[in-house]
Amino acid sequence: MSLKTLKWLAALTPALFIGGFEFIRHEFMLSYMSMETGNWYITFLTLLVSYVFATWMFRSIERTNNRLARETSKRAVYEERERLARELHDNLAQTLFFINVKLKQGKTEEAKAAVSEIDHHLRQAIFNLRTLPEEGTSFSLRIGKWLQDWEVLTGIETVQNLRATDKVLTAAEEVQIFAIIQEAFTNIRKHSRATQASIDLETSGPDWSLKIADNGVGFAEDESQRHRYGLTMMRKRAAELGASWELQSSPENGTELSVTSARRKPHVRDLLSRSHRG
């Protein structure tokens, strides 16, 4: 049922019920029912009808919202799959062209290295597709399972601090945050040379914060071009979530990524941590 129909029903139902009752009472029931008794009856019946109608209407709205949420979640998953397909196509096409050039130049070692890079990239893409954000029991458990598999795949120790309350995030938000996590840990595997990585995800009311850090080599500002695609995608996803974005990286301190919902202010301990690192 459309919202327009619900609006007209909400406006007309009380008026028709009260008007109809008053008409029947004055035309046919005055000799049987006093005005005071009639007033009590109309008050009680109005409350009863209003409660029944409001319950039905809000259930209809809730069903509509749930259906829209499921459709939004499915669309976000399809968009993520399409993005992965484009990424695979673009990266593979560029790498295959590079291999072809190097083979023509007789530089077989560089060609072998490029083939190895294709192998790693395909393994990561397949690994990312294994666990879709819509599967599993809870968001925290899905992230934890994915990170355990990632740890086995990479040999990098992970420290998890996941305090995401169920049903705080919408399905579409979970898809975007999960994709940010995947992209960040893919960058850690490819570029950081880290031995340990950590993730801190917390929800508080409608707000949430995500922090991912590693103890790797980091990168200076002029080296960020090699991370450009992954950083651009994560920054775009943060913008779509309406969240703030902060990236700190240096060869001495590794890399730390913070993504925070717009309404949430940094925690005191985060500010002290950043001050200490500075």
Largest sheet: 5 strands, mixed
Radius of gyration: 29 Å
SS field, number of helical segments: 7
Please state how the strands of the largest beta sheet are arranged side by side.
Answer: 1-2-3-5-4
Oligomer, anyone?
Answer: single chain
Average pLDDT reading: 77
Care to describe what's here?
The chain has helices at 3-29, 35-104, 108-130, 139-154, 171-192, 228-240, 268-277, and strands spanning 157-163, 196-204, 207-214, 243-250, 254-261. The chain has a five-stranded mixed beta sheet, covered by helices on one side. The model is unreliable at 265-278 (pLDDT under 50). Strand 2 and strand 3 (207-214) form a beta hairpin. The protein has seven helices and five strands. With 278 residues, the protein is of the alpha+beta class.
Secondary-structure topology with pairs:
Layout: H1 3-29, H2 35-104, H3 108-130, H4 139-154, E1 157-163, H5 171-192, E2 196-204, E3 207-214, H6 228-240, E4 243-250, E5 254-261, H7 268-277
Parallel strand pairs: 1-2
Antiparallel strand pairs: 2-3, 3-5, 4-5
Characteristic key phrases:
5-stranded mixed β-sheet, alpha+beta, 65% helix, 14% strand, disordered C terminus, 5 strands, elongated
Summarize the structure.
The protein is of the alpha+beta class and 278 residues long. It has 7 helices and 5 strands, in the order ααααβαββαββα. Helix content is 65%, strand content 14%.
